[in-house]
Write a structure and sequence with these properties.
about 100 residues, mainly beta, 10 Kd Chaperonin, Protein Cpn10, Chain O, about 40% strand
């Protein structure tokens, strides 16, 4: 089984953030911010406007993206944590 997002939604897996600062200070779990960089694992077919025009997806599976903080819906599937969000919540693609 796998997740297949609908319309202009994407499924992302968060990229683990650094556990220590550049100066070597280890951050406890409560001090860490929610990561904003994620890897896309599934992409929906795209949205359709009210007049029937299809809006193509600008991202693809495997892209690393920066997303809005606290956006999307977190889900647990087959023991993995994913976030499902709309393409509009993606701010940039990391090259």
């Amino acid at each position: 089984m796998k997740i297949r997002p609908l319309a202009d939604r994407v499924v992302v897996k968060m990229v683990e953030s650094e556990e220590t600062t550049k100066s070597g200070i280890v951050l406890p779990g409560s001090a860490k911010e929610k990561p904003q960089v994620a890897e896309i694992v599934a992409v929906g077919p795209g949205a359709v406007t009210e007049d029937g025009k299809k809006i193509e997806m600008e991202v693809k599976v495997g892209d690393r993206v920066i997303m809005s903080k606290y956006s999307g819906t977190e889900v647990k599937f087959d023991g993995q944590e994913y976030t499902i969000l709309k393409q509009g919540d993606i701010l940039a693609v990391v090259d």
